[in-house]
Amino acid sequence: MQTLRTPFRLRAPGLGLALAVAASGALAQANRAEVIHWWTSGGESAAVKELADAYKAAGGTWVDSAIAGGEQARSTAINRMVGGNPPTAAQFNTSQQFRDLIDQGLLNNVDEVATKNNWDKILPAAIVGSIKIKGHFYAVPVDIHMPAWFWYSKAAFAKAGIAAEPKTADEFFADLDKLKAVGLVPLAFGGQPWQEKITFYAWLAHVGGSEMYLKLYRDKDAAMVMSPAFKSVLASFKRLHGYVDAGSPNRNWNDATAMVISGKAGFQIMGDWAKGEFGAAHQTVGKDFGCFAGFGPKSPYLVAGDVFVFPRTTDAAQIKSQQLLATVFTSPKTQVAFSNKKGSIPIRTDVDVAGLDSCAQQGVAIMKDAARQLPSPEMLISPDLEGALQDIITKFWNTNESVDDAAKAIAAAIKS
Amino acid sequence: MSAVMGRAPAIARGGSRRLPRPARVGLYAFLLTASVFFLLPLYVMLATSVKPMEEIRLGNLFALPVKMTLQPWAQAWLSACTGLQCDGIRTGFANSVAIVVPSTVLSILLGALNGYALSFWRPRGAQALFVVLLTGAFIPYQVMMFPLVRALAAMGLFGSLPGIVLIHTLFGMPVMTLLFRNYYTGVPRELFMAARIDGGGFWRIFAQLMLPMSLPIVVVAIIMQVTGIWNDYILGLVFAGRDNLPMTVQLNNIINTTTGERLYNVNMAATLLTSLVPLVVYLVSGRWFVRGIAAGAVKG
Amino acid sequence: MTPVSRPRSRVTRQLVPWLALLPMAATVLWVYVGSIAWSVRVSFSSSRTLPIPDFVGLRQYERLFSSERWTVSLQNLALFGVLFVVGCLVLGFLLAVFIDQRVKGEGLLRTVFLYPYAMSFVATGLVWQWMLNPELGLQQTVRGWGFPGFTFDWIVQQDAVMFAIALAAVWQASGLVMALMLAGLRGVDESLWMAARIDGIPPWRVYLSIVLPMLGPSFGTAFVLLAVGVVKVFDVVVAMTQGGPGLASEVPAKFIIDNLFNRANIGLASAASTVLLLTVLALLAPWLYARGHATRREARAARALAAREGTGEPAVRGVLA
After folding, report:
1. Complex-level ipTM
2. pTM of the entire structure?
3. Homologous superfamily of domain range B91-253+276-299
């Protein structure tokens, strides 16, 4: 009798415990979101942590799937969608990379969140153009990166006798000559095709001007490409080649930044992510290095960045998670915290940026002037055309191809 | 020659091929030079992995570290960031082992079986099949990605451990079959015929005669498969599923980054740590590179 | 074996091996033939990120052949192929032969030559990039030792970059070729050496006239493995040069993978991989036909021998324990 009763009595609280555990388990997995992204370095990890923490605070469960290398991460996300177990969210660039997915109906839209939070008003026009396709919002932007900043070493400036940041392209070339004269590498450069591409469209925007830039990337104006004005931009771009060192081909961008950090080189043209390298080397802006966003007070500000898309699903719980992610990512608090760690600037203009470093604050100030905002090429042209142009630029940079031939090649590429 | 072989006494193994003195010196000189060529990158990797980043930025590639530090190694194993988690590469270790062991065993077994069937039994049409198999080995994996993903998803194996083991076995088949088939063509056919006359069937001959005799080539096959599967990245990334991601995914997350900072010392340490498993396999496999196993079977 | 049971044994003789070969057959048909067929189908469509089931004829192929990048990649493949295969075979063979000479520390040496194969090229490729960089690596160091005229900047020269890549690739793969050759050498009977010594034949002649031919299968295996490595070469190029400087070190596998993923152009990538496959087949077909011919001849002879030996004395007994 005794033995029969005890197990029964024990079973009741056990049952209750089991129920409680099951219930808390279900709650813990509420708003479960698996997120694929490519932020894997130390600094990027800290930035993602801001997003994950904000999501957790809003009642969600963040399941991290990090895959280094943008191309790898995107193709893995696409493979997962094709294979039938898509993640809740996947990172892409603010670009046309996910257009095909939209066309094939593989993405959910986030119109509810967008209208509730007034995305049309608070986001820059360039970004809205990228994420709002056929009237629906298919991606949530999380940051704005500018790929065309100028970085310089204060020590190198001092050694070469350069007093101030150049305000025009001619002053820039003069500074490069001064650096060359004292035996420093004038322009730290990483000769990888994507870096050459960035340098080219940075140069086009800063020296050719916003109009010329848009005529090429937005309007695909072949006549403009064959004009003397464009050809002279090509020529001055090639002129930069005379100021890079012989070891520049194949170099990683961090190794080029290292040259600036150690004072061996004067300038680098690179995106605002370069701040991370300076920070890792414990250098401070204004003291050891400087940054400026272009020549003169009206220089264009190229807008690039990252977004998250939401693979198609009819699972109500997943949809709820997706919308929660979209809301959390764009909230002012998350934006500021994330931008601080990421080195980018917030996507909304209505946040307090006092906590960001001075280069970022420069960027935010410039962004307030809508006329200076330029969408990056990947927002305007397909990945295929971007790749074709990259091939032309890298060939032009590395060989003795004439300006005329390069212009012809570009015109042919944008026509097809 | 065969008459001589039958007649020559079994002299002690040493000294049957001693070269004259100057040739011996030349031999060692060549091996030394080759060793320098092979070891130079390893030296750079080791040196870089124990330097602090300030030294690495200065760029003196071959210089010994001024301030040696083992922190990159600790960081690589324990705390390097691979995404939201910053737990180093150790998290993928168990997964890699779970993937490598069954894949290696299965692919070698199947390769040996195929090679044996192809070179001794030669069923009709098998040669043509083998040619197609070999041609398939030349195609980069990525080309076959979409159809394979769909096929595996249809079988319910996409993103699972059995799925990735199946994929590795399938992709290992051409090379393993080639390896064993070519090895078995070097085995005297009289052996096989004698075994058949002794009453051996297909499986018995395989298990009792051919497999034991294949030790040197099995060692090579193990080296190739363990290395190939342990270092595989793309197949593991796509087919293993989030819970079974191999160590190479963590390694790639540490080393590769588009716009993040690169800690080269940690990267080198992580690479060296990841390659320890294949290296141990190489070291251990040495004792099986012995001579005369096949010869022993003929003489008896 | 009585003549009565022979027909049955012939059937089972065909059936049992085929049963064992079933996994291989399934793999061939499902994985390889199926994927190739799918890929060829896609190459006739306008697919971008995902497959689109339309038909555009040879448009992707036209685009492929007018692409300078593709032409350069094929040229590089040919150059790299020759350098890599010859380099690995020669170096691998020499290393195997030299190690086989009862040298001290054989185990250590074998590991020294084999360890590059254990390492993923993502990191070792970067090390090679650094070492071959004129400002950072060997050129700089040797100049620092007092040889100001020393140049070793292959990797930044358009014409010489493939040599640099081949150098790193040979470094990585010769160890495996050495292992293959060693396995083959260890299969050479010890008494062969005895006999040669008794007959007074110098060792190098033994190697040339006897061992080298006996290593035929090992060379064959090594050659095919290396050829596969050549056609699929990707990691080393991405790690060392990313296809640069300019387009100078572009290779077909990189062209295909770039278009598959980054450029969202799987139609073009499929066309490229189809062309690559056809090229491989065209090169392989004569060799395979010759081998198949030899194998068929051997098989016929073997069957004739088997028919005769049913009535003959067994050559060796007690092979199966």
Report:
1. 0.84
2. 0.86
3. MetI-like (1.10.3720.10)
